[in-house]
Amino acid sequence: MIQIDVDPTEIGRNRPVEAGIAGSAGAVLGQLSDAVGQVAFDAWLARLQGIEEEKRTAQAQWEQSDERPIHQLRLARELNRFIDEDTIVIGDGGDIVGLAAKVLTIRRPGRWMDPGPLGCLGVGLPFALAAQLLHPDKKVIVLNGDGSFALNGMEFDTAVRFNLPIVTLIGNDGQWGEIRVPQVALMGEERAIATRLAPGTRYEKIAEAFGGYGELVEAPGEIVPALQRAFASHRPAIINVLTDPDGVRKADAVRAYVM
């Protein structure tokens, strides 16, 4: 860990560093760049490309899985089959957004929004309301986790009242996955505190109660047809997709938490 900071008292304050350099980041990086000169990165890049290819091969297994409950990477693959360059996708959640970002092909600027690093969950429907108002000719899809949907899900009422045909796709694994997965990995199942949600909650019924379109999806092959029906309804919609509570561990994404 190398830290460059104009204030020498900040060196090593947040976490231990192997090398601390007091100075302007721009000036120091310029000096380092000059010192490095023309270094050949071919071998390093080849090694990284090999690692990436191994990850893509392993990931493809889950993108094509027909397991039920549905694996999150398969959900993302089906969503990727559906979207086009006129679709705005908003990610709102933890694991579901992180996994989907590895799969979705975003073709134009401004077609993907999410909470950002260390961002605030619950932005999905609020972002979608603004996006649909600004771009009434575009399809707007919110990819929610069940936990993040719970934070601002009642904004679905706003979408109905303003006749904004947003489609909310919920990956419903019955847990606060981004919290539960590392807790289980680090401390064990019995010490994962307050990370479960009710399994199989029928979130699509919220849409029906407000006058929107709702549909429950339990099999991978039903995802794209459900999206088609939701947009054909021309109403705000919730598609409730039952996903695998163990999906992140199966995809080996848990390593990101414990490394």
What does this structure look like?
The chain is of the alpha/beta class. The chain has two domains: about 1-35, no CATH class; about 65-259, 3-Layer(aba) Sandwich (Rossmann fold), CATH 3.40.50.970. Helix content is about 45%, strand content about 15%. Strands 4-3-5-6-8-7 form a six-stranded parallel beta sheet, with helices on both faces. Strands 1-2 form a two-stranded parallel sheet. Helix 4 links the parallel strand 3 and strand 4. The radius of gyration is 21 Å and the shape is globular. Mean pLDDT is about 90; it is low at about 255-259.
Helix and strand string, N-terminal first? EEHHHEHEHEHHEHHEHEHH
Class based on secondary structure composition and strand pairing: alpha/beta
How confident overall, as mean pLDDT? 92
- What name does the CATH topology of the largest domain carry? Rossmann fold
Largest sheet: 6 strands, parallel
List keywords for this structure.
single chain, alpha/beta, two-stranded parallel sheet, globular
Topology:
Blueprint: E1 2-5, E2 19-22, H1 25-36, H2 42-63, H3 72-82, E3 87-92, H4 95-100, E4 112-113, H5 124-134, E5 139-145, H6 146-152, H7 156-161, E6 167-172, H8 177-187, H9 204-210, E7 213-217, H10 223-232, E8 237-242, H11 247-250, H12 255-258
Parallel strand pairs: 1-2, 3-4, 3-5, 5-6, 6-8, 7-8
Helix pairs in contact: 2-3, 3-10
Short summary of the structure?
The chain has helices spanning 25-36, 42-63, 72-82, 95-100, 124-134, 146-152, 156-161, 177-187, 204-210, 223-232, 247-250, 255-258; strands at residues 2-5, 19-22, 87-92, 112-113, 139-145, 167-172, 213-217, 237-242.
